Amino acid sequence: MEFDWLEEQPKFLMLGYGLLAFVVVVGGLLLLLDVVPSWFARRREAQLVTAAASGAPLPRRPKQREGLFALFFLLPTLLLLTIGLVAPAIRTTLLSFMDSGSDEWVGLRNYGWMFSEDSIVRVLINTLTWVLLVPLVATSFGLLYAVMVDKARFEAIAKSLIFLPMAISFVGASIIWKFVYAFRGDGQEQIGLLNQIVVSLGGEPKQWLLDSPLNTFLLIVIMVWIQAGFAMVVLSAAIKAIPADIVEAARLDGVSPWQMFWQITMPSIRPALIVVVVTLSIATLKVFDIVRTATNGNYDTSVIANEMYNQAFRYGENGQGSALAVFLFILVIPIVIYQIRNLRQQREG
Amino acid sequence: MAFARSRQALAIAGVLGLALGATACGTGNDKKSSNAGSAECAAYEKYGDNDGKKVSIYSSIRDIEADRLAQSWKQFEDCTGIEIDHEGSGEFEAQLGVRVDGGNAPDLAFIPQPGLLKRFVDSGKLKPAGAQTKAEAEANYSPDWLKYSTVNGQFYGAPLGSNVKSFVWYSPKTFKEKGWSVPTTWDELVKLSDTIAASGTKPWCAGIESGEATGWPATDWIEDVMLRTAGPEVYDQWTTHGIPFNDPKVAEAVDKAGTILKNDKYVNGGFGGVKSVATTSFQEAGVPITTGKCALHRQASFYANQWPQGTKVAEDGDVFAFYFPAIDPAKGKPVLGGGEFVAAFADRPEVQAVQTYLASGEYANSRAKIGDWVSANKKLDIANVPNPVDKLSVGILQDPKTVFRFDGSDLMPAAVGAGTFWKGMTEWVNGKDTKTVLDGIEGSWK
Fold it and tell me: Where are the transmembrane segments (chain A) (predicted)?
């Protein structure tokens, strides 16, 4: 198929509008932030000048104006948060106690359905697997890599290589990996990397994405591939930020590399490590694109976000979809609370 | 303060850009002038005076097919002055609900699932079709069709395009070379399969992977067989949950389909074993016919568009289709098919005019001439249908012996028809036994 620029023009136009809108909004905000405070500053300056010239006592800055100022900056955020987050969250919670058409109250039936229907329990187990494995594996890989390439030759290149997958969208990455897992019948030319390796080692080609639970692990690999780069970059920065004198002192004391890692590096980068794990956990709980692109939740690979979309938008089961959404929300809350408390402790400590 | 200045420059550029964008939006709004009054427009006078009105249509039809649609009603637009604004979406089924609930419903929608249509009727969003539309539809379509857009005695819109699903694709060339003949009964079909299997080729190829709709080709298989083993009356009970999904009659049909679909001697030519059916995409599933790696592929008439470029689709060509034979010919000629219905979310006169026009014989012939289109419209002149498979389909749909039934998964509630039934059949192909699968689907139907 040829790429017809003229044909695709509407899409480019849309892209152009998007970019323009971004420039306008961000530019407008920056301008506002620049102009408004300087206008106040100039006015105050003028007041001070006139006051000084007339010999009157210098005017005090009125206290309540600061509150007004704060409100001025908070208002748009508060407004958007209410419209875009608080209101839908409340509505979704209400819907989760109603039937599929959102007409009648059904109490906890949707939640009961969630934990009794075999296919949904499977979805919950899959999500749990994801959330346990992805942060752990991605962070370990990232950390290991960060420590190994630290101060090595070609460090920049080595880091870019791992970081590159971050630039690929989840959908793009899933399509790439779908090709890796692709299957062609025995005796035909394999187009999938994994099956080609298997075949050249004398094995039989396998339909990787068909058998549960192996397929879920193979999908997790995709997420790890994307996110390990993120973990690596943050942790590498944290390692670089360890004060040189501590490292030097440890060296003088004659620590082994092993001790160095566990007793100097790890405690020093603990806050960064927590940020990485928390961010990855939340991202993993919400995973949708990978499963949808690679298997569409078939062959027992579905996760909560996927099933929520299916129930609410494809099957018209608003109540069940909302219940799944609320459950997902509840799962994220403890992680967020932990993160906030952790941040507070650091600030105090 | 170079920093501040550069920020200001950025902002100014942004504002400038917005102004440019706004002017760009303003262009491209060239108003079409109607040329009502000319001779060829005389036929459109009955649609009333709606000059300058706009009607929006939302459907799942995109790209070339959408261009063909626009072409098919161009004369209507020119003559009546009604401007039809069609938008096709790949996420039609999911997005239609979002748009309707959000108060942004299109005037008309081409809904391919009677089950979805019923959902919008139940939530009070659809407007019953006007008297003119109803009269036009009743004159042009058989009651078999109209009952699918009739809910609680109210009629909601005529069918538009249709497809015939009871087809088996084959290669006339290969058949001629090997001396095989097209089977006309189920027994002949099985015998032919055995002959081909004995010659060392797997006779059937199949594939049910289709993105988020994975499983639907398998449900079509089951429905087609069900229509043959249990008959149309039981089929109707099944799709309306008059009998449970795990009824022995359903199990019988599923097992009968399994004698082909899950038979390691029969499938999956060109791809591997039975399990490869689950991961082979429906688009490429029949392609091995062109290379002789399989001989038979049961798929709807629209599969004509999936063949590799340069494949001649004709009775004497590289590939063609024959009617999936009946098991008991005495019971008539059961035909499974699908199609879309023109349902209205608004009842303004211009919307009803378009709805009536789309139900008419003039429209069916106008659209058919452009190609790649089939309809059950009785006024459709078969001479206006250019390609051979579409001719065959129209012939079957217009045959008085035909007992037509709509694709069952489109009739069931979406949670079953587009959910557990698809998923269940995928698991069934993947090795689960019939009883477990049917029990599971029955459990999900509330």
Answer: 12-33, 68-90, 123-149, 161-180, 217-239, 260-283, 322-340
**B270 interaction partners in chain A (CB closer than 8 Å):** 185
Same topology for domains B56-164+338-399 and B167-336+406-444, yes or no? yes
- Is A34–B7 a contact, with Cβ atoms under 8 angstroms apart? yes
CA dist B147 and B118 (Å) reads 12
pLDDT bracket for residue A213 (50, 70, 90): confident
Contact: A28, B426; criterion CB under 8 Å = no
Quick check: A31 and B414 CB within 8 A? no
pTM of the model: 0.78
- The 3-state DSSP class for residue B318 equals coil
- In A193-212, the residues whose Cβ lies within 8 Å of chain B are 205, 207, 209-210
Compute the distance between CA of residue B303 and CA of residue A263 in angstroms, rounded to an integer. 65
Q: Residue B30: is its pLDDT beyond 80? A: no
CB atoms near residue B159 (< 10 Å): 26
Helices B231-239 and B248-261 cross at an angle (nearest 10°) of 100
Res B5 pLDDT > 70: no
Protein fold of A112-348: MetI-like fold (1.10.3720)
- Taking the CA of residue A231 as centre, how many other CA atoms within 13 Å lie in the half-sphere pointing to its CB? 29
Name B302's Cβ contacts closer than 8 Å, sequence gap at least 6: B163
Residue B200 has pLDDT above 90, yes or no: no
Q: Inform me whether the C-beta atom of residue A292 falls under 8 Å from chain B C-beta atoms.
A: yes
A315–B414 C-beta distance less than 8 A? yes
CB-nearest partner of A20 from B21, B123, B273:
B21
A119-170 confidence digits (pLDDT tens): 899 999 999 999 999 999 999 999 999 988 888 888 888 888 888 888 899 9
Question: Model ipTM?
Answer: 0.72
The answer to whether B426 contacts A298, with C-beta atoms less than 8 Å apart, is yes
| Look-up of token digits 């909601």 | B156
For residue B268, whether the previous peptide bond is cis, meaning omega lies within 30 degrees of 0, is yes
Dihedral of the alpha carbons of B29, B30, B33, B34, in degrees to the nearest 10: -50
| Residues B415, A183: C-beta atoms closer than 8 Å | no
Task: Please state the three-class secondary structure of B419-445 as a single string.
Answer: HHHHHHHHHHHCCCCHHHHHHHHHHHC
Give the residue from A179, A301, A314 with the most B CB atoms within 10 Å of its CB, the best one to mutate. Answer: A314
Query: Among B88, B28, B26, B31, which residue's Cα sits nearest to residue B54?
Result: B31
3-state SS of B14-33? HHHHHHHHHHHHHCCCCCCC
User: What are residue B296's DSSP bridge partners?
Assistant: B204
Asked if the bond preceding A76 is cis, omega within 30° of 0, the reply is no
Place domain B56-164+338-399 in its CATH homologous superfamily: Periplasmic binding protein-like II (3.40.190.10)
Cβ–Cβ under 8 Å, residues A302 and B429: no
- Domain positions in chain A are 9-95, 112-348
Nearest CA-CA partner of B95 in B60, B61, B131? B60
CATH for B167-336+406-444 (3.40.718.10, 3.40.190.10, 3.30.450.20, 2.40.30.20) = 3.40.190.10
Of A17, A30, A296, which is closest to B21 when you measure between CB atoms? A17
Q: State chain B's mean pLDDT as an integer.
A: 87
Give B 386-445 residues with CB within 8 A of chain A. 413-415, 418-420, 423, 426-427, 430, 440, 444
